[in-house]
């Protein structure tokens, strides 16, 4: 197993991409902390699926846009497993809005979680990563370069994630901590269905512009995360891996 004896924290892991990443990391031997903000049932389901296959996992509640919740998340991680080897900063929120409708709430809701929360989560994780180093994986988005209309705030947060991935790779390299980002294209998740993007004109437009002709599935992202978490990518840091079927 590629991740045997490793401990992974995956934020926003009760559903969608995060849930798939948690399950794939566990299948490679990692003990996984399944973080969730509100969906306890979803997180418990992920934990059950992992443990039924002989893996190790716990669910820990925490809104990672809040410093106190982040501190509690890593206190619980340390109590359960004593260390962190892998952090997947997956928790995020997206809301599309045209320029004239953008307000302070719309801005801060996304930046507080997608950017500030990611930084503060990484800050705490680093304290539990040992001298042998580790891997931090930021889930960004192809929107940082695709930049669809109405996504000024959301695309801005993901462009920030791309930039801070490179900055932190330079800051943390001396500690043998690698920092990379995965930039997914459109992925069929519960959130995409809830937003009404899973069917209709928007999906058709994305698929028509995607060389491989389909939107992604959560496992398409999860297998890339396993690669970046493992020693297979031991000399890769500061990179943004676009996993989008060719959509740019």
From TrEMBL:
Keywords: Oxidoreductase. The keyword Oxidoreductase applies. Residues 6-190 form the Ketoreductase domain. One of its GO terms (molecular function) is 3-oxoacyl-[acyl-carrier-protein] reductase (NADPH) activity. It is an enzyme of class 1 (oxidoreductase). Its EC number is 1.1.1.100. SMART domains: PKS_KR. InterPro entries: KR_dom, NAD(P)-bd_dom_sf, Sc_DH/Rdtase_CS, SDR_fam. NCBIfam families: PRK07231.1. Belongs to the short-chain dehydrogenases/reductases (SDR) family. This is 3-oxoacyl-[acyl-carrier protein] reductase.
């Amino acid at each position: 197993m590629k991740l045997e004896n490793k401990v992974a924290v995956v934020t926003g892991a009760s559903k969608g991409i995060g849930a798939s990443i948690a399950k794939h990391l566990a299948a490679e031997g990692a003990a996984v902390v399944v973080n969730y903000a509100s969906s306890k049932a979803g997180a418990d389901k992920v934990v059950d699926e992992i443990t039924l296959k002989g893996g190790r996992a716990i669910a820990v509640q925490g809104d990672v846009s809040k410093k106190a919740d982040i501190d509690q998340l890593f206190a619980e991680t340390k109590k359960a497993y004593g260390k962190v080897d892998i952090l997947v900063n997956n928790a995020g929120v997206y809301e599309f809005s045209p320029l004239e409708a953008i307000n302070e709430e719309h801005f801060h809701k996304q930046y507080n979680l997608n950017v500030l929360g990611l930084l503060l989560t990484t800050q705490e994780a680093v304290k539990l990563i040992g001298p042998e180093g580790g891997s931090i994986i930021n889930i960004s988005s192809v929107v940082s370069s695709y930049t669809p209309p109405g996504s000024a705030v959301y695309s801005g947060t993901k462009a920030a994630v791309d930039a801070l991935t490179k900055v932190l790779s330079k800051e943390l390299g001396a500690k043998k901590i690698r920092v990379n980002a995965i930039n997914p294209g459109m992925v069929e998740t519960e959130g995409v269905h809830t937003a009404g993007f899973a069917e209709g004109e928007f999906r058709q437009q994305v698929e028509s512009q995607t060389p491989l002709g389909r939107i992604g599935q959560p496992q398409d992202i999860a297998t890339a995360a396993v690669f970046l978490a493992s020693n297979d990518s031991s000399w890769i840091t500061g990179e943004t891996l676009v996993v989008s079927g060719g959509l740019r």
